[in-house]
Design a protein that fits this description.
single chain; 604 residues; alpha+beta; eight-stranded mixed β-sheet; 22 strands; globular; binds adenosine-5'-diphosphate; binds magnesium ion
Length: 604
């Protein structure tokens, strides 16, 4: 008897649906794409329970005829593609004719539509892959699709959905991207009857970014507009020496589709080399307009990936486009640099022998004592404390080897700090070999444990800001803020809502410098909380430790290095940072000697 059976159509349908519809955000994405393809200028998105119970999307697009309202649920039914050659130049967002078929196969779906012809519209009700009802109705021009109880007939899949917040976060993030790509379309997003986003139509990307993120973010961006060989790059991208401490806002759109792609982010990083502080990443909202035949959008069922036919040309486009924009930028406007980081760069430049023309910075005068204020401040101060009582210790300058000889190994451990490599790693002798310690990860581990202890002892002191800072948060950050409100208050952060998405930061944990308080808070808000409540606290503490820790690239004095090494080996887990990355590489003496062909004990 044959063991192979052809699957019943119903099962095959569900399997295929799973490729397109993975979670609520997939439904939102497909439906918004359909509305945009239908030429809508207004799109309203209503959700319940993170989209798991209800997703309702209404547009004022072209609507469907009676025939199409039935046909659109058939697999591979599309009005956007007729023959194979059309696949070569796809100008619409959809083209596979699979979305409605897939969504309706795994939900209870109602479609209402009117295409402006005749005097009636139509309503279709489906459940799973069955048509339940078809009726004529009065309806305004456009289409409404209501999706209830996603995966009601695929319990295994439904179980895999995440919590309400988490699904909602994904949706907010997608809607934000769609709104950026189509500033001329009004977007309204409502969750459990609460309005999360309301962006009336505007005519430029700048205005849309302003609506979504506020003035602060916009001020750090420059316009990019560059064309080469039929490729065009346009949008907004960080000004030289602006940027942000995380990669939150690095968004690329290829022919208006939001795309995550390694070629694009690598090109961006390269374009900003030398233009940003080391610990900052560029922000960008960049649109690549490429000839349709030079991108393959048909490589992924949910169209989340694409393939470039000429990746090097794309790479070059970004590199040159940003370089050109940055150049004209610095001709017109004075470059603003944050106080402490400029000092830090000077220190590094002096040491690496690189001399760049001094930038003329209005109002940039700094006090001497502010040098290397960033994260290093904390360990510097601590290192000083731990040395108090000893005779006036001079800080070791790089290249000054005398002190190494003077600093004896920590008794009983064989540990001695030999120096710093690439301003990022400490080279330390171990009992039986050499250790290379990542200075950032090490400091992160130390701070994390310190913060945890403070937290257990409920020892967070709060300090009032001298100059309360106004923060304009993105919709995503607002969600994270609400989710983490209690924890943040417990740590000493005090925020006052000023209306819309503006907040004033009034107080912060007293262990940080006032200048860094907002950056640390933003770091926490960017990440949001994990699903499990228990680890929420740890995650925040880890983020705080990461933001407060010294960075790679920062030169350290001998005393600072010794302090760091000593503290590290007193933590419970010197080997891993709180994010799970390794802190130390060890090379055994045995390995060194074997590799070099040296006999133990021989000196020649
Ligand atoms: P695709 O978008 O790949 O064509 P879909 O399953 O998403 O496939 O949609 C099938 C067809 O239904 C579309 O080609 C379009 O003609 C029609 N359609 C879907 N949504 C809308 C809408 N909101 N307004 C007008 N027509 C729509
Ligand atoms: Mg579609």
């Amino acid at each position: 008897m044959a063991r192979i059976k052809v699957l019943p159509a119903e099962v095959a349908q569900k399997i295929a649906a799973g490729e397109v519809v993975e979670r609520p955000v997939s439904v939102v994405k497909e439906l918004i794409e359909n509305s945009l393809d239908a030429g809508a200028t207004e799109i309203k998105i209503e959700l319940e329970n993170g989209g798991k119970n209800l997703i309702r999307i209404q547009d004022n697009g072209c609507g469907l005829s009676q025939e199409d309202a039935v046909l659109c649920f058939k697999r591979h039914a599309t009005s956007k593609l007729e023959k194979e050659e059309d696949l070569e130049h796809i100008a619409t967002l959809g083209f596979r004719g699979e979305a409605l078929a897939s969504i309706s196969a795994v939900s209870r779906l109602t479609l209402k539509t009117y295409n402006g012809q005749g005097d009636r519209g139509y309503q279709v009700e489906r459940e799973g892959d069955r048509l339940i009802r078809f009726l004529e109705i009065a309806f305004p021009p456009g289409t409404l699709v209501e999706v209830r109880d996603l995966f009601f007939n695929l319990p295994a899949r439904r179980k895999f959905l995440r919590g309400e917040r988490s699904e909602l976060n994904l949706i907010t993030s997608y809607v934000t991207q769609a709104a950026l790509a189509f500033p001329g379309v009004k977007f309204l997003l409502i969750h459990n009857n609460r309005q999360l986003l309301n962006c009336p139509a505007v005519s430029t990307l700048e205005e849309r970014v302003y609506q979504l993120y506020g003035r602060q973010l916009l001020d750090g961006l420059m316009a990019v507009d560059y064309e080469e060989g039929g490729y065009r790059l346009r949008g907004l991208s960080s000004r030289p020496f602006a940027g942000r401490a995380d990669r939150q806002h690095q968004l690329f759109f290829v022919n208006r589709r939001p795309i995550k792609d390694r070629v694009l982010s690598a090109a961006l990083t390269q374009a900003y080399l030398g233009m940003l502080d080391r610990q900052k990443s560029p922000e960008c909202f960049l649109f690549l307009d490429l000839p349709y035949e030079l991108v393959d959008v048909n490589v992924h069922p949910a169209k989340a990936e694409i393939r470039f036919k000429e990746p090097p040309a794309v790479f070059r486009l970004i590199l040159r486009g940003i370089e050109l924009a940055a150049r004209s930028e610095s001709l017109i406007k004075p470059v603003m640099i944050g106080g402490s980081s400029r000092k830090e760069r000077q220190v590094q430049e002096k040491e690496s022998g690189r001399s760049e023309p001094e930038l003329n910075i209005p109002g940039g005068a700094e006090k001497e004592g502010e040098a290397r204020k960033e994260g290093g401040e904390a360990i510097q101060a601590q290192a000083r404390e731990s040395q108090a009582g000893q005779t006036s210790q001079t800080w070791r300058q790089p290249g000054d080897t005398k002190q190494v000889a003077e600093s004896p190994p920590t008794p009983g451990t064989g540990r001695q700090v030999l120096g710093q490599y690439l301003n990022a790693y400490l080279v330390v002798t171990a009992e039986d070999g050499l250790m290379i310690v990542d200075q950032h990860n090490a400091h992160e581990r130390i701070l994390f444990e310190k913060f945890k202890k403070l937290d257990e002892e409920k020892g967070w002191a709060s300090r009032q800001m001298l100059f309360p800072q106004v923060l304009e948060l993105s919709p995503e950050e607002v969600l994270h803020l609400e989710e983490l409100q209690e924890e943040l208050a417990g740590l000493g952060f005090e925020l006052e809502p000023l209306g819309e998405r503006s907040y004033s930061l009034r107080a912060f944990p007293d262990i940080f410098d006032e200048a860094r308080a907002t950056e640390i808070l933003r770091g926490i808000l960017a990440e949001g909380g994990p699903e499990r409540l228990k680890s929420k606290r740890d995650k925040m503490l880890a983020t705080m430790a990461c933001k407060a820790a010294i960075k790679a690239g920062q030169p350290l004095s001998q005393a600072e290095m010794e302090f760091l090494a000593a503290e590290l080996f007193q933590t419970s887990q010197p080997g891993v940072c709180p994010h799970g990355r390794p802190v130390v590489v060890e090379i055994s003496r045995d390995k060194i000697e074997k590799t070099l062909g040296r006999q133990p004990g021989r000196t020649d």
